[in-house]
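For practice. Supply one:
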Amino acid sequence: MIQIFPAEKRYIQRMGWLDVYSVFSCNNYFDPWNTHFANLIAFNEYVMQPGFGFNMHPHEDIEQVFLVTEGQLSHADSLGNEGVLSPGGIQSISAGSGYARYACNRGDAPCRYLAAWFTPNALRMTPRYAGALFPGGAHGEPVPLVSGSPELLRAFHEFPPLAINSNATLYTLRLHASEYPDSVGEGERRLIYVTGGMLRINHEYVRKGGHARIEGKEKLRLATENEAEIILISMWE
């Protein structure tokens, strides 16, 4: 089954200094029929204005992935990590038994970034942080950024994906007037989020900010007549 959700279906919170585009129930938005998809419980796109940010705040027993697409995001946490994420910069954090973090935009332009939260395979683990700057990757080939698959983590040597404690792999994919054949197997679920351009999934078009949820065995043809940039999240039982 393939479900298409246009960009307008996202819940939008505008706070002046921050715009939040939520795919699932988040903060003061609650829809009992839209709380998660498989083990993905949050997927938000943030646009943060210069000079603003989140103060230090706690998290526990959650797997967090942050990916910057525009601007710069400064960060620090109670584990001793700090730095600045630029486009292509990604963080994978296992909150485990608990940690605290802050994030702010100290740059001169708005910062746009994505946040994906997954339920962990095990609770109360020692918190763990990993960060990397990934290359753009070749057009037409998915690049794994984070993964909970030991086999996939071992398969890449030069730019291995960051590890997460969840049954999921998050890829980035860029298409240029081309198509990418894909398939979803039994017991697998797939979320495809368009971060740029216009994507065709089989015979349906999805523009920037829209997404698709796929479950059950499906054959997919991801294509674009111009340019498309997407995040592809594969999850399994």
Summary: The chain has one helix and 21 strands.
